[in-house]
Task: inverse folding
């Protein structure tokens, strides 16, 4: 089956039809194949345009009818080429959108995975216990500061007295 008939007749794998649609990778591969096929057709049309232009120049004023026919064919080929350009642009836009969607889906899956991991880590933590622990740490830091202050002050024997 040719690439074009696969594209338009929906010739895909049975697995992708059973799932309700193709995977992003399958769709991207098909879009790339279509882009490649259209690019080849573009090259073919460009060579045909050059050939028709050469024929028109060759006949020039000697055989106006042949020159005009060549120019008309050239114009038709140019029209087809413009259509292919538009189609390629649309396919490229769709491919980029699909790639972005696939990337966003993967990012979302990974964020969900990370959220589950955080939830599992926080299962064993109790907010009240954490608050009590933080208060204990603050109290111990205060005690350590008082000790440090007491050690760092000069010993003043007799300089200070209590009234």
Result:
């Amino acid at each position: 089956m040719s690439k074009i008939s696969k594209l338009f007749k929906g010739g895909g794998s049975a697995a992708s039809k059973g799932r309700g649609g193709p995977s992003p990778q399958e769709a991207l591969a098909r879009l790339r194949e279509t882009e490649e096929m259209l690019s080849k057709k573009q090259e073919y049309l460009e060579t045909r345009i050059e050939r028709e232009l050469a024929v028109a120049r060759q006949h020039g004023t000697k055989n106006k009818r042949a020159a005009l026919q060549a120019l008309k064919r050239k114009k038709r080929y140019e029209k087809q080429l413009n259509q292919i350009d538009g189609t390629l642009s649309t396919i490229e836009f769709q491919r980029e959108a699909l790639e972005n969607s696939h990337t966003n889906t993967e990012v979302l899956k990974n964020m969900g995975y990370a959220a589950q991991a955080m939830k599992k880590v926080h299962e064993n933590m109790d907010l009240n216990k954490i608050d009590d622990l933080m208060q204990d740490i603050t109290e111990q830091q205060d005690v350590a500061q008082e000790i440090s202050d007491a050690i760092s002050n000069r010993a003043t024997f007799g300089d200070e007295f209590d009234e």
User: Anything to note?
Assistant: Confidence is low (pLDDT under 50) at residues 7-16. Helices lie at 3-9, 14-18, 24-59, 64-122, 127-152.
